[in-house]
Structures are given as C-alpha cells and as structure tokens.
Amino acid sequence: EEAVFLRKKITLLRAFSLLIGSMVGSGIFISPKGVLKNSGSVGFSLIVWFACGLLSMFGALSYAELGTRITKSGGHYIYILETLGPLPSFLFLWAEFFAIRPANSAVVSLAFGRYMLEPFFAPCAAPLPAVKLVSLLGYYTVLTLNSWSVTWSARLQTALSIVKLLALVLIIVPGMMLLAQGHTENFQDAFDRQSLVLDKLPLAFYAGMFAYSGWFQASFVREELIRPERNIPLAVIVSVITVIVGYMLTNVSYYTVLGTQDVLASPAVAVSFVQRAFKSLISVVPLLVALSCFGTMNGGIFTFSRTLFVASREGQWPPLFSMIHIRRHTPLPAVMLMFPLVTAMVCIGDIYHLMNFFSFSRWLFIGLATLGLIVHRYRHPELHSPFKVPMFIPVSFTIICLFTVGMSFYSDPVNVSIGCTIVLSGFPVYYLVVHRQMSDRCRSLFYYLTHKLQVLLEVVQQEIKTY
C-alpha cells in the first residue's frame, strides 16, 4: 500500500551513536594485549594507541569528504567503484564477504561470549565451547533484530553507546584515582628499547586500528542519513576525538593497575583489571563490556548489509540482495547472507589469528579508497564539496595504510598470504561471472531461482531513488 524503499531515519544523534557504538566495542577490551605484545613496552604501546587514533582521524576526515562528494551508500565499496573502477571494487567486495567481514564479526562475537561468561567462571577461564555457543546466540539475536526493524536497530545502537561510554568510565576512574595516589611503578622504564621488534610493529598497529575501526560506518548508510552533508563530518569529528581521549585514559588505567606480564597473560584484560582494582564491580564491568561488543555486532550487521545492497544495485552482486522487505522496509536478504560464514569462523577461529587474518585486506582497501579521493579530486577539480580536507591528510593516510600492509608480509606471512590469496581469487570470478555475459539458459535459471526466493522472503526492488 506504500512505496518500498530505505527511509531516512538516521539523525545526527543516531549517526554519532553508530560511530561510537562501532568503535567502542571489543577492541579496547582485547586489543591492549595485542598492541603490547607487538610493540614491546608500555611506553611504545601508548604511542601506538595515540598514533592509531591520529591515523583514524585522518581516515575519518577523508571519508567525510568522500561522503559529501559521492551521494550513494556503500562505504569503501562505492568509493572504490566511483573513483578507481569496477574491478578493484569487486575485489574489495569479494574479500569483504569471504574474509574481512565474517572474520571481524567472529572476533567481536567471541569477545562478547568470553566477557559474558567470565564472571560465572572466574578465576578460571570460561570453557571454549560455552564461549562459542554464547557468541553465536548473541550474533543471531542481532541478526534477527536487523531483519525486523531499522528503527529498533538504531535505537538499540543509541542505548548501547551510552553503555559503552559508561564501561570506559568505570575503568578510567579507579585507574586515575590510583595514579593520583602515586601508583606509577608499572611505568618505570616504560620505553625499553631492548624489547622493541620493528618488524612486529605492523601487527601492533593492526590491533590498535581494530579497536578504532568503525569511524567509517556512517558512509555505509549515507542514503539513510538526514542532512548527510552536515551530519557526516560533524558526527565523525566529535566521535573520533571522544574515542581517542577515552582509549588513551583507559590504557593508562590498565597499566596503572596491571603490569606488562599481567596484560599479556590475561584472556580478558578488562576482567583482570576489575579483579585487581575494583572487586565490587567484578560482575558489572564484564557485563558492560559484553553489551559493548553486542552494540558493535549490531553496527557491523547494520552497515555491511548496505554494502551488499548497493553492490547488488550496481550489478556486481545477485539482484536478490538489493531487495527490501515489503512491510519491514529492511534489506532482509543482505542482512541474512553473512549467517553461515560468521557461524563457521566462530566455530573454528581464534581471536588474535582472525584479527591478523582480516586486517591485511581491510587496510589495503581502505588505503585504496582514500587514494580514490585523491584521484577524484584530480579528475573533477570543478566539483564543489561542502566539506574539504587538506590534501596532505588523504595522502598521509594512504601512504601509511599501504606501507603497513606491505610490512605485514614480514610480520605474519601466513595469515597475510591467506588474505592476499582470497583477494586475488576474485580476479577469475570477476571476469567469468561479472564482466562476461551469462548465456540465455543460465540467465533464465538464475532469474527463476531469484523470483522463487523473492516470493518466499516477501521482498521487492527499491521503488524510490534515494541518492
């Protein structure tokens, strides 16, 4: 009875909540171990955390300009498509679907399960099968919610963003109180050069950038934002500054209470922190951390489904995934597609191996997207953009991303080679399936199956152009 399309329901507050909710998730509660392990000392790890925050701001500002220049949703995918062409955009889509997004979602889900169960088994570690079961239940819950309602997904994200900031405050305050009382013994000899291994630094940056990742999420839902030319830059700048300050204070609190060996030995740093500093909150903080991870899962599903939706609309993904539920107005097929891959990675994966596995591909394509901004400026100097950053920002960000990606081949050749192989495997798929026309018989069978699934899922193509 009414037109079927994705409504503009994301206000400035919801955009801010989406960014905060995506950045402050499992990363700050599991990445300190990875950053410290690969940077070698407390002092160098804090430098890595600040550098990652600054780098994230550079990337976020570059994406804010891309979001005002290119009016479609889709994030990395649509920016690479519009600036560098269809082949690199398809390779991104291929790697994103088969490696980056399911591995990222599995990492966050496993962190959710671990923190959810930690209070019930402390001081022992929670059994791994139980962690994986709870992780999958949490992921399926978010998947169902995103299939059901855009409005409720956005409201949940806003509420959980408040919970995330509260979790950081509960870690920061006792740490700062102890620091003010003179507990600085863990900062003695903070810059121990003997423990610094340069070829491991890219892995430290991967762990830190994983904690900040999420600053690009507003670009995935550009068509659903109210006043995007104003709200994207504003939400990006405020949220990234908030997270940088919060992360630096949180890490100082960790190191005030826990020594380097404690951090490296802990499977859940925030829980170890509370056990040592604030035992009265031993059951509260892990629950808040688990809810933070829950919010990150929600934001990830919400945004990645829009990537598949846009890729399908652009003709690089099956047309079923550009369809919307006739009553719920959600991109139901695109939301449900990640279900099997994430399930498999949660069942077989380990947090830190998964993190290195997907980081190579993610930062390669983010670097290409900001390279696309430089190319777009050069090709279209006449194009007026309501938000414009100095050229050194995208240039610096692109160089650092690509350099870190190149260095990671020396740091973790096995996982990086697997990621590289997955990206390269997209070449024959592109030329055989996307670039080349299907035969009439294959096309007829394909559309027949699509029609049957369309009827089963009660979905139709978007009826109103929103970009």
Structure write-up:
The structure is a single chain. This protein is mostly helical and about 475 residues long. It has a single domain (about 10-315, about 335-430), classed as Amino acid/polyamine transporter I (Up-down Bundle), CATH 1.20.1740.10. Helices cover about 75% and strands about 0% of the residues. It contains 19 helices and two strands. It has helices at about 10-25, 25-40, 40-70, 75-85, 85-120, 130-150, 150-180, 200-210, 230-255, 260-265, 270-275, 285-315, 330-335, 340-350, 350-380, 390-410, 415-425, 425-435, 440-455; strands spanning about 325, 460. The protein has a two-stranded antiparallel sheet. α1 (about 10-25) crosses α7 (about 150-180), α5 crosses α6 and α7 (about 150-180) crosses α12. The longest helix is centred in the N-terminal third of the chain and has 36 residues, at about 85-120. The radius of gyration is 22 Å and the shape is globular. It starts with 11 loop residues before the first helix and ends in a 6-residue tail after the last strand. InterPro entries: AA/rel_permease1, AminoAcid_Transporter. It is a multi-pass membrane protein. Its main location: membrane. It comes from Casuarius casuarius (Southern cassowary). This is XCT protein.
Q: What layout of secondary structure does this protein have?
A:
Elements: H1 12-23, H2 27-39, H3 42-69, H4 76-84, H5 86-121, H6 128-148, H7 150-180, H8 201-212, H9 228-257, H10 260-265, H11 269-277, H12 284-313, E1 323-325, H13 332-336, H14 339-348, H15 351-379, H16 392-411, H17 413-424, H18 426-434, H19 440-457, E2 459-461
Antiparallel strand pairs: 1-2
Helix pairs in contact: 1-7, 1-9, 1-12, 2-3, 2-8, 3-8, 3-9, 3-15, 3-16, 4-5, 4-15, 5-6, 5-12, 5-14, 5-15, 5-17, 6-12, 6-14, 7-9, 7-12, 8-15, 8-16, 15-16, 15-17, 16-17
